[in-house]
Design goal:
The structure is a single chain. By secondary structure, the protein is mostly beta strands. The chain contains no helices and 7 strands. Strands 1-6-3-4 form a 4-stranded antiparallel β-sheet, with no helix packed on it. The radius of gyration is 13 Å and the shape is elongated. The mean pLDDT is 93.
Amino acid sequence: GTTVHTAVAGTSDMDEVWLYACNTDSADRKLTIEYGGATSPDELTEVTITAEAGWVLVCPGLLLQNGLIVKAFAAAANVVNINGFVNRITA
């Protein structure tokens, strides 16, 4: 997938990650989010983004740290946009 966010290094601070996706295509598209890794089924989230539905919440403030990475890819190229923000929580 394409890197969306790299979390804060170390284990004392945390990133609270909020992501939204928008499908600009005329067909529904599956979006896969690799949250912190790509090897375990527990690190993958798949969601179907309805065609032309506007912004849909796909990552509801999940926590991440230790330099782990959030990546994403869709079933078709150049039709699903991702936007969002990160709240950095410092110890």
